[in-house]
Amino acid sequence: MFSVLLITDELSFDVWAQVEYMNEAELDFSSIEMIAHIPRYIVVFPAYYISEFLEVELSFVYGWYLLGATVLTSILWEKSREMLLQNNYKSSLVLLLPFVLLFFVNGRFVFGLLGLSMLLCTSIAHANTELTLGKIIGMLLGLLLCTVSSGVFIVGLLYWLFSFVDVNKRKPKIKSIYGWCVFLLVLIPSTILASVFLVKNFSFFIDEGYGLLGVLSHGLGMFINPAPLLDNCLIEGLDDSTCQVASVFSVLGPFFSVIFVFFALIMTVRVIHKLNLPNQANRGLILSAFGGVFGITTLMSFIFVLPICVNRKLLQSEKTSTLNVHNSSESEELKSEGELCRSSEITAGQLNEKI
Prior knowledge:
By secondary structure, the chain is mostly helical. The protein has a domain at about 1-135 and about 145-205 and about 275-320. It has 15 helices and no strands. It has helices spanning about 1-5, 15-25, 30-55, 60-85, 95-100, 105-130, 135-145, 150-170, 175-205, 225-235, 240-250, 255-275, 280-290, 295-300, 310-355. The longest helix has about 45 residues, at about 310-355.
């Protein structure tokens, strides 16, 4: 269906402005803004290359590129479910969610979701088996894809950090030392890149006159600092529910707004723990909730753990049921073997009597 929509141009995507700027501008490594956009351009570069090589419209190639990223995301979700849920719940409608999102999200979030899904899959694989070169490449590629959004990258980096530490501290000593070396080699450049993103964002909002609190204007933090949103509502002449809510919080003041957002986050964390989900799911949901203070796209990052959001009690009962069935089948096999042995003994005895 998506292939038909792309061919008929009923569904099309355009590269976002930051990448277009990088494609047309000359490299200037003295510019923090340009350095921050380089990994994003690397993510989209294959679409530019194929478009020029085949002499095809960029939007057409970019649409197929996003579709490929979506298919890979769904495959990674299925793989993560199989590894974590022990082959239970193999099929689920949740695996179709990445395709549904193509109708509603911009292209950059598709790459961010793919990157987070890679980090999820490699983290689960690292917990189950040894740390191989393939897993390390998967982690690095996942982090690279997450750079399409500053908030998504920080959520992905923290998710990888907590997951890696949690797994590696339980590994044998020799393997643990190797793991810590890999950890540092990935962490140091990733932390530097995260710092570049933060400096760029702070600089942008300071230049716009909103100060450091301006970074809160893109997410749930807009209730703490609604000034940028209200300015946009005035410029665009908007009067929707979001603008009205921002006006209310502007009147109430920052103190009440901070308390509101703080208690909203606390209640969210409590609800997440009540769901009794696997640790990998809890970690992703909580990080996305806190990241959502700074950006709506970051808040949407919680989607990447949906394929493993299964109640642990239900999962344990399924495992117990599977184990009982397995033990029952083994008992039946042993019983059949015992009867066969007794039958062989009787036949041998009868043969001796005849002799």
